[in-house]
Amino acid sequence: MAYLALKGIEKFFGEHRAIKGIDLSIHQGEFIVFVGPSGCGKSTLLRLIAGLEQIDGGELVLDGRDITKLPSSKRDLAMVFQSYALYPHMSVFENMSFALQLAKVDKAVIREKVERAARILNLSPYLQRTPKELSGGQRQRVAIGRAIVRAPKVFLFDEPLSNLDAALRGQTRVEIAKLHRELGATTIYVTHDQVEAMTLADRVVVLRDGQIEQVGTPLELYDQPANQFVAQFIGTPQMNVVQAELLPGLHRAFGLETPLQGAVGLRPEDVALCRPGQGTLDGQVELIEALGAETLIYVSTPLGAQLVARQHSRSPLQLGDAVGVQIDAQAAHLFDAQGRITRHGHAAQTH
Amino acid sequence: MARSRLTPTLMARTVLAWAVALLLFFPLAFLFLTAFKTELQAIAVPPELIFSPTLESFREVHTRSDYLLFAKNSVITSVVSTLLGLLIAVPAAYSMAFFRGPRTKDILMWMLSTKMMPAVGALVPVYVLAQYSGLLDTKLALIILFMLSNLPIMVWMLYSHFKDIPPEILEAARMDGANLWQEFRRVLLPLGMGGMASTGLLCLVLSWNEAFWSLNLSSAKAGTLATLIASYSSPEGLFWAKLSAASLLAIAPIVVFGWFSQKQLVQGLTFGAVK
């Protein structure tokens, strides 16, 4: 049975229907990530769950209790904000103990809980400081600490890492994953960063335009996207999606007589390069991105198809070189004109 | 570090700054000097800058009118109207700053627009209302009017102060289980203290110096210091020294008060919570 159930959740901003009937069941202990392009409604949906915005339709049930109309203060949820939103006039200790103080928890218990959380988050030396005396990463940890001392029913994270620099972001991501393993708390995490989504989530919810496009484990989304949007949203670099008529002869690889309709989706790792004339089609190198561990080679064909190939070895190719493109037809996804999937490719196990 | 050289521009600027400062300070200085002169010295042309100061005018003011009564009225009307105003303006500004609706800006503009009407335009109806309700020459009438006339400014000032407070901090308090009162008491009050203090202080000064309504709606019983000053420019002629002495007595408390609260006025909380 669902621990947190969203049933037909709706939100209007004036005339604009921002959230269009979201149904979702979240299990206890699960790490759920809401991901999607900006403006897709992921943060709004989180704020609706938090009670910071009013729900205009549908029902929200937490642990068997209808909390749709309950104010935030009574929902027993904790939230980590993008801007951290620490109380600037309180010390780290006071920040972390604020919720417990409000709940009139015994002073000794508060001290013990805060100190334990501070130990977990390496904040023990900073308990008497104010937020402005802390670095960005430390503030972030205080914000997380403030959430965990309360042991709430659900943790809500609203893009918590986007104010950190790249190195710290990666490190904190790992720490959050570790923390979730240790605490086993139900978590909803909003991000626009698909790496965070893929690495942290038990299940990812891909949102677009206030609607769910797909819910699934990270690899399900990667291997079996429900549509072209999800296919292109998940994965870096993006999945190659090329109109089928730009890839003549590909249908023979599928064993078909008639040319394919719609669009063909290929992960960059399913596109290999070879000598000109030896592949499925020919093309020309347009750009090479040597990232060290892998090399991305951008190729355009005479018909105008653009393809990215990912390979794990260094490449002797130069810009403008003629190459052959070898397409792994088994791995190709097919989409119809509306972007719906008509055929899933087989996940390439060998790569 | 090189010392800044006295360039012509800098010199000109310094001179200009001093000139402006002296110009602004001149009436106050002249008032101060005149208050310690005799009536004869006060009207001397050219004005005497060196004279033996006398407390004659103060003595005169003290015997002729009950300074303490007027001072008490001023304190009560300005303090109570300011507190009452804050009580109404703080929740109003809170909801406008943190729960903006599509019409919030319009409401703020509308509130400000009431300040654009000259007070005298409302004199007759207000006077009649005060008369019918038996509030003429009562402190209550002045308190209500001071409060109402300051309310738009109070809401505006508080609104712009509150808007500088990141709303997430209040949301965080709500998520932490704070009810409305706790959110106000534990988070908004400490963070908005600077804004509330400067708003309150400004309104205190405005109410203290308010003359139009106190002159028209009060006299012997509820009169404030502004009416005391006015009583020295009477039909029998101007008594410059006594007028100055009364004015000095009237503004002294608020000047001293302003001097001491200067720091609170300027001081703002620095935010470390948000990047």
Which architecture of the largest domain in chain A per CATH? 3-Layer(aba) Sandwich
The main pleated sheet of chain A reads as: 6 strands, mixed
Q: Which H/E pattern describes the elements of chain A?
A: EEEHEEEHHHEHEHEEHHEHEEEEEEEE
Q: Indicate the CATH class of the largest domain in chain A.
A: Alpha Beta
Q: What integer is the average pLDDT of chain A?
A: 91
The neighbouring-strand order within the major sheet of chain A is 6-7-8-3-9-10
- The strand count of chain B comes to 2
- Name the shape of chain B in a single word: globular
Name the poorly predicted regions of chain A.
none
User: How many strand segments of chain A?
Assistant: 19
* Overall domain count of chain B: 2
- Quaternary class: heterodimer
The pLDDT mean of chain B sits at 86
| Series of secondary-structure elements of chain B, N-terminal to C-terminal | HHHHHHHHHHHEEH
The proportion of residues in beta strands of chain B is under 5%
Quick structural gist:
The complex is a heterodimer of chains A (351) and B (275). Chain A has 351 residues and is α+β, with helices and mostly antiparallel strands.
Written overview of the protein:
The complex is a heterodimer of chains A (351) and B (275). In chain A, the strands form 4 sheets. A 6-stranded mixed β-sheet of chain A has the order 6-7-8-3-9-10, with helices on both faces. Chain A folds into 2 domains: 4-232, P-loop containing nucleotide triphosphate hydrolases (Rossmann fold, 3-Layer(aba) Sandwich); 237-343, Beta Barrel (OB fold (Dihydrolipoamide Acetyltransferase, E2P)). Chain A is of the alpha+beta class. In chain A, 25% of the residues lie in helices and 30% in strands. In chain A, strand 4 and strand 5 (65-66) form a beta hairpin. Chain B is an all-alpha fold and 275 residues long. Chain B is built from 12 helices and 2 strands. Chain B has helices at 8-35, 39-42, 56-64, 67-98, 104-113, 123-132, 139-163, 167-175, 180-209, 212-217, 225-230, 240-266; strands at residues 233-234, 237-238. Chains A and B meet through strand 6, helix 2 and helix 4 of A and helix 8 and helix 9 of B. Chain B: Residues 71-261 form the ABC transmembrane type-1 domain. Chain B: It comes from Chitinimonas taiwanensis DSM 18899.
